[in-house]
Amino acid sequence: RLSLKVIDDEDLLPLLLRGLRLLAADSLGGSGSRGYGKVALSGLALDGASIQANFDAIPLFPADA
Prior knowledge:
By secondary structure, this protein is mainly alpha-helical. It has 2 helices and 2 strands; from the N terminus they run H-E-E-H. It has helices at residues 13-25, 52-56, and strands at 45-46, 49-50. The longest helix has 13 residues, at 13-25.
């Protein structure tokens, strides 16, 4: 469960999802190349509505970056 405080109607959800997508592509801690610390995110929902497809569609390396 994650809570995000919105200030001045700023939409930080796309930035948060991109950061989580990068985290899922990498690992936490040491020995990530050996498979330790892998992170998987599934069942993502926002206010009860699934956003998993939106998360999965985020490219790791956007062409315009």
